[in-house]
Design a protein that fits this description.
CATH superfamily of the largest domain: Ribonuclease H-like superfamily/Ribonuclease H
Largest sheet: 7 strands, mixed
Organism: Gadus morhua
Number of helices: 12
Pfam families: DDE_Tnp_4, HTH_Tnp_4
Mean pLDDT: 74
CATH topology of the largest domain: Nucleotidyltransferase, domain 5
Oligomer: single chain
Protein name: DDE Tnp4 domain-containing protein
Radius of gyration: 35 Å
Number of domains: 3
Shape: elongated
Order of helices and strands: EEHHEEHHHHHHEHEEEEHEEHH
Structural class: alpha+beta
Helix content: 25-40%
GO molecular function: metal ion binding
Cofactor: a divalent metal cation
CATH class of the largest domain: Alpha Beta
Low-confidence stretches: 1-70, 99-154
Distance between the termini: 93 Å
């Protein structure tokens, strides 16, 4: 076996030992913040990654420093040296830190890199190691990055709505301001003692305000459960329990209670926009259907049923009805995407709310004149018969489009809730509740029509 260039003549031969930094687990381009020190034992010169060592005096400075640091440890492949010790680059020797606030290598305001240099992995465990060997106690002035469970009660880490501005509340929940959010929380707090959680156990580590805020964030932003655990410092089981419980609770409070009936024509006239007068002064409701995309079912017959040939996607359809002032007053259950608008209107139960003298505004797809109750008129745009609309038909179409645009704008607000952008398979059973809850939350937003904003109030 050939001698290394750095080996002295006449020195005692020793088992070839070399130190080398380990490679990055992802391959080339080691950019990690820590440097791994592997002690490689090999009897073949071709596998050596450093000079052959024959005595202690011939150990290079970098190896000697590492060996001194690990003198109290058995040298094996699990030894680690943090990259913080290599201040002059990985090609130079590691250095030791002095436990002092004035030491330049140990800043007063600890960073992530400076926090981790006291921890070196030995046998897969994190242990504080003294640079001179042996275990030691950490200084009080060093604040380490904590690795506590995510369900730790830490009020400082909670994404609390009390600390957020109106703009953030509007972004995260869809509600216009903190005052409206407080009203929703007040409704929930009335039932605080009688709430039965979906998982069967109560959540005690969070305030009622934070739980409502978490559920609204899920509906508005469709945040993942892991994201919510980081914002609210809780476990994924707690997030699932809170979200499932309060989505159904808010649906019962805001939809079942407040949207149970369709306002009468007399009630609508109190806040009727000028565009509906006088031709549509008896308008009771403006209706339209909208599609909500869903994940394609695995069963072929169900996938065919929910596929919408008009939208070219698998979807659910829902019938939305708004009053002339733009408030959503009716939201049907969900129907498969292949069902026609006329069939949905017939089966949804909307016709039971209509009375003689009411007018319904709709588009051309609602051929329901023969199924509505007696005395109810249906106003839809005229069809093209002779290749050209007459002047009166153009005027009627334009006026009707100006009145029907409000239901389109309401549909757009509903779809601003990101949980409705695409309903996955595991939420398909709760799709009805989600859509109807979003309709109720839209009613709590600022009015669609500024003209009648002063006539509307939330009691």
């Amino acid at each position: 076996m050939r001698r290394s260039r750095n080996q002295k003549q006449g020195s005692i031969k020793a088992q070839p030992t070399a130190w080398r930094p380990a490679t990055h687990p992802l391959g080339k381009g080691d950019k990690c913040s820590t440097m791994t020190a592997d002690l490689v034992y090999s009897s073949k010169q071709s596998r050596m990654t450093g000079p052959r060592i024959s005595s202690t005096n011939d150990i290079p400075e970098r190896e000697r420093t590492t060996a001194n640091k690990r003198a109290d440890r058995e040298q094996d492949k699990n030894l680690r040296v943090c990259g913080c010790h290599f201040l002059n680059g990985k090609e130079n020797s590691p250095c030791h830190f002095e436990w002092s606030k004035t030491t330049p290598s140990h800043p007063t305001q600890p960073t992530k890199q400076s926090l981790d240099h006291t921890y070196c992995t030995v046998g897969g465990q994190d242990t504080a190691v003294d640079p001179n060997g042996g275990a030691m106690e950490e200084p009080e002035d060093v604040v380490h990055q904590e690795s506590c469970p995510v369900n730790r009660k830490d009020e400082g880490a909670i994404y609390s709505p009390a600390r957020l501005s109106d703009e953030v509340i509007r972004m995260e929940t869809g509600l216009p301001d903190k005052a409206m959010f407080s009203r929703v929380v007040g409704l929930v707090q009335r039932l605080e003692g009688s709430i039965v959680y979906a998982a069967g156990w109560r959540v005690e580590g969070m305030t009622m305000e934070s739980q409502v805020f978490m559920a609204l964030m899920k509906v508005r932003q469709n945040c993942t459960h892991l994201h919510l655990t980081q914002l609210f410092s809780c476990s994924t089981a707690t997030v699932a329990n809170v979200v499932n419980t309060f989505i159904h609770l808010l649906h019962r409070l805001l939809f079942n209670t407040m949207m149970a009936a369709v306002p009468s024509c007399q009630k609508n006239r109190e806040s009727m926009p000028a565009s509906f007068l006088p031709s549509a002064s008896n308008c009771r409701i403006v209706i339209d259907c909208t599609d909500i995309e869903v994940a394609a079912p695995k069963e072929m017959d169900k996938a065919k049923m929910v596929y919408s040939a008009y939208r070219w996607m698998h979807s659910f359809k829902v019938l939305i009805g708004v009053t002339p002032n733009g408030v959503i007053t009716y939201c049907s259950s969900l129907f498969p995407g292949s069902v026609s608008d006329t069939a949905i209107t017939m089966q949804s139960g909307l016709l039971e709310h209509l009375e003689a003298g009411d007018m319904v505004l709709a588009d051309k797809g609602f051929l329901i004149s023969d199924i509505v109750p007696d005395g109810v008129s249906v106003n839809i745009p005229p069809f093209l018969n002779n290749g050209k609309f007459t002047e009166s038909e153009v005027r009627a179409t334009r006026e009707m489009a100006r009145n029907r645009i409000h239901v389109e704008r309401a549909n757009a607000r509903i779809k601003d809730f990101r949980i409705l952008q695409m309903i996955p398979s595991h939420l398909r059973s709760s799709a009805n509740v989600l859509v109807q809850l979003c309709c109720a939350l839209v009613n709590l937003q600022n009015p669609l029509i500024k003209e009648i904003s002063s006539t509307l109030s939330v009691n």
